[in-house]
Design goal:
Layout (H helix, E strand, L loop, with lengths): L20 H13 L6 H17 L8 H7 L5 H15 L3 H14 L5 H12 L8 H11 L4 H17 L1 H6 L2 H11 L3 H18 L4 H9 L3 H9 L6 H12 L6 H11 L8 H14 L4 H20 L3 H17 L19 H14 L5 H12 L4 H16 L4 H12 L4 H17 L4 H8 L10 H13 L7 H10 L7 H18 L1 H16 L4 H16 L1 H8 L15 H9 L4 H5 L4 H4 L1 H4 L5 H5 L13 E2 L8 H7 L8 E2 L5 H4 L5 H4 L1 E4 L2 E4 L6 H5 L25 H10 L4 E6 L2 H6 L3 H10 L3 E8 L2 E9 L6 E9 L4 E8 L5 H15 L3
Antiparallel strand pairs: 1-2, 3-4, 5-9, 6-7, 7-8, 8-9
Keywords: Membrane, Protein transport, Transport
Protein name: Beta-adaptin-like protein
GO molecular function: clathrin binding
């Protein structure tokens, strides 16, 4: 069989066929530059398209600048647009080349065709080259007086571009005064809207430096201007209407009559087809009537129909935006929307984000009269093939139950979920049952009867397993197999990969179970405490150690601490404070409503971080992927009293020491049960064999092994070098080895008036600063250091708050074992500076 013939393929028009392609374009453009032959414009178009396509995919065609400018001498608008696009792209990075464009752009600004005049003026202002500012003033002044509205509209925006290039030139040319005159007298509404937008931006920026600018900014909220814009609002485009309505929302009427006049003028805007206009109008209505309670409630009734109409019509994105604002209103006045709950039922073809928000709406509008219908609908979603929606539906049912609506029926529904034998349904239901038992302990008998039939092996999600463990510990007296289930979990300690959730709950549950059923739980508690003390996760390690010492001190006191009499939880904490909610309401019709947080939380540098990579640094995991064989800690972190340290024979200088090693294969084997079993009786905790070295850690003096030789002192390389890119990459990859919070002395606070002094001091101690940022009272520094004889490095994030006099340190290291020694060096350097 003959091989297939090679197909001849023409090269793509967007890819150069060879290195000489740009040179060929240059020669072809030069040939056409002065030609007046018929069809020459068509040839230019083809060449211009090639140039633009190359430019778009990143090929440098700046060498064609002169030829492109020469070929722009034409009346073809399409050629003009492509040439302006080319010029605007290369002018900023090549200011010298931009000088070549001034003559032909200024010439085009005087063209007979208003379209070309406008395009040329827009391109001239878009060059953004400071050395060309003097060439902008004349064309802009002429454009603001042009007879064509399109040219005037472009010129107004050009003034704003000029202001951002050179504010002094803009103010000296008195352009704001011209714009103010245009805003009040121009017949074209788009020109008026552009003037309003430009003046707002210019005067807001100038207000901090000029009292006159501040007065001009306040004049935009004067009654004559507001009424002038409102009377013409129907003539404006949707964008311009939103701009005007945003301005009106800031206006403070003098009396109630004026409030009603404004609302009457805007009444028909609530029926507008554009959702943005409707939301902007609603914001005006809500803000004007905040101080009039009765009228404010009537406004809620009035705006309900337009909002529900927007939800049911339009794109999913619009529905989501409107639902977000509806959710905010429902949280403030749930009773007003309780009869409209069916509008928030999910449709089969809606995207997940819309369904999720509707479920939140159903939770918010639930009350005594509609709970049965809402819960019935939610239970249907729980059997949905869409697993995320099923999860959200179960959570919604639980939230309604916690609101004390029809609890009896809801508990029955939740217990039925546990019998569905679907892993995700069981997991979500267990979490909810735990919260319900905290609030309604009287339902414990019914719930425990069902929960007791669930095998812990079938529950894999950390939160669900933690909820099951909590119930096993809290109600172990009512669950016959509770100690044995907890024992099996303790024996599989190393198989659990969520220490911050499951292991912490397991330790507490075993303690509770021990106080209720001591003989059956003794072995499991010993295994868990031994494994917990040797755990590499700091919280688990500390809690196990705390429980161990508590039992060693006094079992009765331990029971009072771990398992005291509890009262039912009346109200669960709201994740958002009322102040935050009010702030979001003030920012109605903005992204704050959709993000459910005030704007300063996602715009201010204090919250975003001053560095390019600070957002990524804040999201890094703090879980260290290190061996669990050793846990090193400072004496003060391990809660040992001075007397205990002395009894244990620890050195007085607070050097680090090793926690007991934990070998699960040994501690869990049947042959070693007698030696590893921790015996708890008469308020004293001790071991049958010294093979499990917890007593050594507690300072009982039972150690049979000699103390390890002291590590050599750590020395740093004074000439260490690290580029920012490598620092950022290593910061992402390395886990946090140590976190500290240190007090800052008054001298240290005073010294931070010049942060550079701290940077120079640390460099003198071979600790180098790679980035700084922030402003008073929060200062942030990123340091790095390197071992003198090795390539391993230490990375430090140091955040100093001068108002609270606290310094927070996060240390990451290539060599985890040297972290403590480096921490001592770092603190010593800060102390020498007078910081601590």
């Amino acid at each position: 069989m003959a091989p297939p013939a090679h197909s001849s393929r023409s090269p793509s028009p967007s890819q150069p066929s060879g290195k000489g392609e740009v040179s060929d374009l240059k020669s072809q453009l030069r040939q056409l530059a002065g030609s007046r032959a018929p069809g020459v414009d068509d040839s230019k178009r083809d060449l211009f398209k090639k140039v633009i396509s190359y430019m778009t995919i990143g090929i440098d065609v700046s060498s064609l600048f002169g030829e492109m400018v020469m070929c722009s001498a034409t009346s073809d608008v399409v050629l003009k647009k492509m040439c302006y696009l080319y010029v605007g792209n290369y002018a900023k990075v090549n200011p010298d080349l931009a000088l070549l464009t001034i003559n032909f752009l200024q010439r085009d600004c005087k063209d007979e065709d208003p379209m070309i005049r406008g395009l040329a003026l827009r391109s001239l202002c878009s060059l953004r080259v400071p050395i060309l500012v003097e060439y902008l003033v004349g064309p802009l002044a002429s454009g603001l007086k042009d007879s064509n509205s399109y040219v005037r509209m472009v010129a107004v925006i050009g003034v704003l571009k000029l202001y951002h290039i050179s504010s002094v030139t803009c103010m000296d040319a008195d352009f704001p005064a011209i714009l103010k005159h245009l805003m009040l007298n121009d017949r074209d509404t788009q020109v008026v809207a552009n003037c309003l937008s430009t003046l707002q931006e210019i005067w807001t920026a100038e207000a901090s430096n000029s009292g006159e600018a501040s007065r001009e900014r306040d004049a935009l909220l004067s009654k004559p201007l507001i009424y002038y814009l409102l009377n013409r609002i129907k003539e404006f485009s949707e964008w311009a209407q939103c701009l005007i309505l945003e301005l009106v929302a800031k206006y403070v009427p003098s009396d109630t009559n004026e409030i009603f006049d404004i609302m009457n003028l805007l009444e028909d805007r609530l029926q507008h087809a554009n959702g943005a206009v409707v939301l902007a109008t609603i914001k005006v209505f809500l803000h004007l009537t905040l101080s009039m309670t009765d009228v404010h409630q009537q406004v809620y009734e009035r705006i309900k129909a337009p909002l529900l109409t927007l939800v049911s019509s339009g794109s999913p994105e619009q529905s989501y935006a409107v639902l977000g604002h509806l959710h905010l209103l429902v949280m403030r006045a749930p009773m007003l929307f309780s009869s409209d709950y069916k509008h928030f039922y999910c449709q089969y073809n809606e995207p997940f984000y819309v369904k999720k928000l509707k479920l939140e709406m159903l939770t918010a509008v639930a009350n005594e009269s509609n709970t049965y219908e809402i819960v019935t609908e939610l239970c249907e979603y729980a059997a949905n093939v869409d697993i995320p929606i099923a999860r959200e539906s179960i959570r919604a049912v639980g939230k309604i139950a916690l609101q004390q609506y029809d609890v009896n029926a809801i508990v029955d529904r939740l217990l039925q979920f546990l019998e569905m034998e679907k892993d995700y349904v069981t997991a979500e239901t267990l979490v909810l049952v735990k919260d319900l038992l905290r609030k309604y302990p009287q339902w414990s008998h019914d719930c425990i009867a069902v929960v007791g039939n669930i095998s812990s092996k079938n529950v894999q999600e950390p939160k669900a397993k933690a909820a099951l463990i909590w119930m096993l510990g809290e109600y172990s007296q009512d669950m016959q197999d509770a100690p044995y289930i907890l024992e099996s979990l303790a024996e599989n300690w190393d198989d659990e990969h969520s220490p911050e959730v499951v292991r912490l709950h397991l330790l507490t549950a075993l303690m509770k179970c021990f106080f209720k059923r001591s003989p059956e739980t003794r072995k499991a508690l010993g295994i868990a405490l031994a494994a917990g003390v040797a755990d590499f996760h700091q919280d688990v390690h500390d809690r196990a150690l705390f429980y161990y010492r508590l039992l060693r001190y006094n079992i009765s006191i331990a029971e009072c601490v771990v398992n005291p009499p509890k009262q039912a939880v009346s109200v669960f904490a709201d994740p958002q404070s009322s102040e935050i909610k009010d702030r979001i309401f003030d920012e109605f019709n903005s992204l704050s409503v959709l993000y459910q947080k005030p704007s300063y939380m996602f715009t201010d540098k204090e919250h975003r971080g001053p560095f390019e990579f600070s957002d990524e640094l804040g999201n890094l995991s703090t879980e260290a992927n290190v061996s669990a064989q050793k846990v090193e800690a400072d004496d003060k972190d391990l809660l040992l009293s001075t007397s205990e340290k002395g009894d244990a024979g620890f050195p007085a200088n607070g050097s680090a020491y090793s926690a007991p090693s934990y070998d699960s294969s040994k501690s869990l084997s049947a042959s070693s049960t007698s030696s590893d079993l921790v015996i708890l009786e008469t308020g004293v905790l001790h071991q049958a064999s010294p093979s499990l070295a917890i007593d050594d850690l507690l300072g009982l003096g039972l150690s049979t092994t000699p103390a390890p030789a002291p590590a050599p002192p750590l020395s740093l390389n004074p000439k260490a070098v690290l580029d920012p890119g490598t620092f950022q990459q290593k910061w992402r990859q390395l886990p946090i080895s140590l976190s500290l919070e240190l007090p800052v002395s008054p001298q240290g606070v005073a010294a931070l008036t010049t942060p550079q002094a701290l940077i120079m001091h640390m460099q003198g101690n071979s600790i180098h600063c790679i980035a700084t940022g922030g402003q008073s009272p929060n200062f942030k520094f990123f340091f790095f250091a390197q071992k003198s004889e090795e390539l391993s490095k230490f990375l430090v994030e140091c955040i100093i708050n001068t108002s609270s006099s606290k310094a927070q340190l996060k240390i990451k290291a290539d060599d985890q074992n040297s972290t403590q020694a480096f921490s001592v060096l770092f603190e010593s350097a800060l102390s020498k500076f007078g910081m601590l």
